[in-house]
Specification:
Its EC number is 3.5.4.16. This is GTP cyclohydrolase I. GO terms for molecular function: GTP cyclohydrolase I activity. The protein has 299 residues and is α+β, with helices and mostly antiparallel strands. The chain has a single domain (20-154, 198-294), classed as Roll (Urate Oxidase), CATH 3.10.270. It has seven helices and eight strands, in the order ββααβββααβαααββ. Strands 1-2-3-4-5-6-7-8 form an eight-stranded antiparallel β-sheet. A hairpin with a 6-residue loop joins strand 7 (273-280) and strand 8 (287-294). Helix 5 (217-228) packs across helix 7. The longest helix has 19 residues, at 155-173. It is elongated and about 105 Å long. The relative contact order is 0.13.
């Protein structure tokens, strides 16, 4: 075969004037190098890249898009590397009159967490989503999304449980003329869990805008976990589990409480964005949810 012979354009006679918002590739395997607290972690990512196609144009250079994405795996991920990749990829699509290009990256970061009391530790995983966009009109924008899983103890359930315990104690010892410390302690050991407040595995999805510099993924995760107080654990022995139970008992919160804690902590750190919080209830078959936009510039 003569390699100099132009390949035929089999779709050249299919004409349309309809513009399309996104044309490109998805489900691309891509390793990413992400900065974490103690160095750089290589993460397997699922990538997508799209450009708009105007005035019935077609024939995006998919291979050029793919080559642009490959550049992201050669250095630590940052706002600068994402901006360079998106701009370079868009400039390679001038034949189809593309004016906007977006990159979507989904991965999981693994961070080692110490046990609450014992000497053990283990790895927790955090889903991460990065969306970068470059357009000739608006320039470069970047958002970073993370997911944090935690435990939440229901305040109403805690109050009802305390009431039930108090009423049972009163009924048991109402006719007692005197009580000593040992009797009370013994009774509580047997009946302290008469009614157990319900807790739920809860999930917070936070998305913030990033302007420049390294991606603050681990910093953002730490800020959220510290605000919530009860992130899920990895390595757990009996004394760790007891400490976790104590934290849940001292830290009851509705979905509104968790959301406001997160917003306050994030705005204090200078972040603006949105959140979606879900408490996956153990009492109900449905979830309690809250969502909100927040901005450090508004307060």
């Amino acid at each position: 075969m003569n390699n100099l012979t132009p390949l035929p354009d089999v779709a050249s006679k299919i004409v349309s004037d309809i513009s399309l918002d996104q044309v490109g590739m998805a489900n691309i395997a891509l390793p990413l190098r992400i900065n974490v607290e103690n160095g750089t972690q290589t993460c397997a990512a699922n990538a997508a890249i799209f450009a708009n196609v105007q005035n019935g144009q077609k024939g995006l250079h998919m291979s050029r898009m793919y080559e642009s994405l490959l550049e992201l795996s050669e250095t630590s991920l940052s706002a600068a590397t994402l901006a360079s990749c998106a701009k370079h990829a868009l400039l390679q699509q001038t034949e189809v009159e593309a004016t906007n290009l977006s990159i979507e990256l989904k991965t999981q970061l693994q961070i080692k967490r110490p046990a609450l009391n014992s000497n053990g530790d283990g790895w927790n995983r955090y889903p991460v989503e990065i969306n970068a966009n470059y357009s000739h009109q608006d320039g470069f924008t970047l958002s970073l999304g993370i997911q944090v899983t935690y435990s939440s103890s229901c305040p109403a359930s805690a109050a009802l449980s305390r009431q039930a315990l108090s009423q049972t104690f009163d009924q048991t010892f109402r006719d007692s003329q005197s009580l000593n410390h040992g009797e009370i302690t013994s009774w509580l050991e047997k009946n302290g869990t008469l009614a157990i407040p319900h807790s739920q595995r809860s999930i917070a999805n936070i998305t913030v805008g990033i302007t420049d510099g390294p991606l603050p993924i681990s910093e953002l995760i730490n800020t959220c976990e510290e605000a919530l107080g009860t992130p899920v654990q990895t390595f757990v022995k009996r004394d760790d589990e007891q400490e976790f139970a104590l934290r849940n008992g001292a830290n009851p919160m509705f979905v509104e409480d968790a959301s406001r804690r997160l917003i306050q902590a994030l705005e204090t750190q200078g972040y603006s964005g949105k959140l979606y919080v879900s408490h996956q209830e153990s009492l109900h078959g449905h979830d309690a949810v809250a969502q909100a936009f927040f901005s450090s510039e508004e307060r």
